[in-house]
Write a structure and sequence with these properties.
- The chain has 353 residues and is α/β, with parallel strands linked by helices.
- Helices cover 27% and strands 9% of the residues.
- It has helices at residues 33-38, 46-50, 72-83, 124-131, 143-147, 163-167, 189-203, 219-222, 233-237, 265-268, 304-331; strands at 19-25, 59-63, 90-95, 111-114, 121-123, 137-141, 180-182.
- The strands form two sheets. It has a five-stranded parallel sheet, sandwiched between helices. Strands 4-5 form a two-stranded antiparallel sheet.
- The relative contact order is 0.12.
Length: 353
């Protein structure tokens, strides 16, 4: 069972604040897909958070290069101000995996902005080193930032990793908060914004310490498996499996990893409760998991452990289907006393007066 990280004492919890800046670095190794994804969030939406439509929240300012109006130095000034201690408090969000800048002879893997003194790019790692110690909290957005993701798979030349690998799994912010991982490839929109909402309520003094599992994921979002929230799970129980795409049945035999993957997308959907991989006929490939993608490949093959489990559930499920079919045929017929005519056959016996 996942466990919460070391509890934070009351004295370590951040004092309530009235304004919060969110500095969002998209300069990890990634595709900006998480920034694009969260624009679809509605529970809450980015607009609701930034425009103060949610009672009790501090005023929030977002600095994300994909979503910002400012460009160039007008955008970068907020990062320099945060580094100098002139933009407090702030939350640091990192999107994209963190490359290892120590394993090459020259050049750099990823950078954001230019050092005005040297004229050289400022690497993403350097920005994390500068900002993380001064941040109220640090959030990894998407699987690349949380666990390394696709860029960190076997054979990659960058030696990249997730935030907790880079900063340390026991790392704490100056407010005593652990790293908060919200995985997904990309991150589910409402999962991320709901996590931000919880964190904002926490820094406003209106919520307790955010509950995280041992992989630093919010427990209320990632405490259940895909299978537990999947509409197709009943077919698995009955050993009734799809053998080709387009079937409404359980997708395990065509490559779905849902029974062992921590994710709430089938339950929550993708946008407005609609969509999500198995909900629309797609298999779960485990994109919210630390072992993704290596431990889930090759995709679209039956997972190794599923062969034994599906064989066992197939035998059990065949018996269950037969018994349920018999019961179904029985309860699909009306009782025999429901008929027209002059004779009452319900079993009613009038009392004598």
């Amino acid at each position: 069972m996942p466990t919460d990280p070391t509890p934070i004492s009351k004295a370590q919890r951040p004092s309530p604040v009235k304004e919060v800046h969110i500095l969002w670095i998209t300069a990890g190794l990634g595709c900006d897909g998480d920034s694009v994804s969260v624009t679809a969030a509605e529970q809450p939406s980015i607009e609701d958070v930034l425009l103060g439509a949610i009672p009790g929240l501090p005023k929030v300012y977002l600095h994300n290069p994909v979503l910002a109006f400012e460009v160039g130095d007008d955008f970068m000034k907020y990062f320099y101000q945060a580094e100098e201690g002139k933009l407090e408090p702030f939350v640091l969000v990192v999107e994209g995996s963190i490359p290892n800048e120590k394993i090459k002879r020259e050049g750099y893997w990823a950078a954001l902005g230019t050092n005005p003194v040297t004229g050289q790019p400022i690497t993403t790692c350097e920005w994390i080193d500068r900002l993380a110690p001064k941040a109220l909290a640090v959030i990894g957005a998407g699987t690349c930032a949380t666990y390394g993701g696709i860029h960190a798979m076997a054979g990659n030349p960058t030696g990249c990793m997730g935030l907790a690998d880079y900063l340390g799994w026991k790392w704490r912010s100056k407010a005593g908060l652990p790293i908060i991982n919200v995985p997904g490839c990309p991150v589910q929109p409402d999962n991320f914004m709901e996590t931000v909402l919880y964190l904002l309520y926490q820094v406003a003094g209106l919520a307790p310490m955010i509950p995280l599992d041992d992989q630093l994921r919010p427990t209320w979002l990632f405490g259940k498996t895909v299978h537990e929230g999947c509409d197709r799970a009943g077919y698995y129980e009955q050993g009734d499996f799809a053998l080709e795409y387009g079937s409404p049945k359980c997708l395990v035999k065509v490559g779905c990893w849902g029974p062992v993957v921590n994710c709430n997308v089938p339950k929550r959907g993708w946008m407005r409760g609609i969509g999500g991989c198995p909900n629309v006929g797609g298999i779960c490939i485990g994109c919210t998991m630390p072992g993704f993608p290596d431990k889930f490949m090759p995709f679209m093959d039956e997972p190794p452990g599923a062969r034994l489990s599906t064989f066992a559930i197939g035998k059990y499920g065949k018996l269950i289907r037969t018994l349920r079919s018999l019961t179904n045929s029985t309860v699909n017929k009306e009782p025999k006393w429901r008929h027209p005519g002059s004779t009452l056959t319900t079993g009613y016996r009038p009392q004598a007066h």
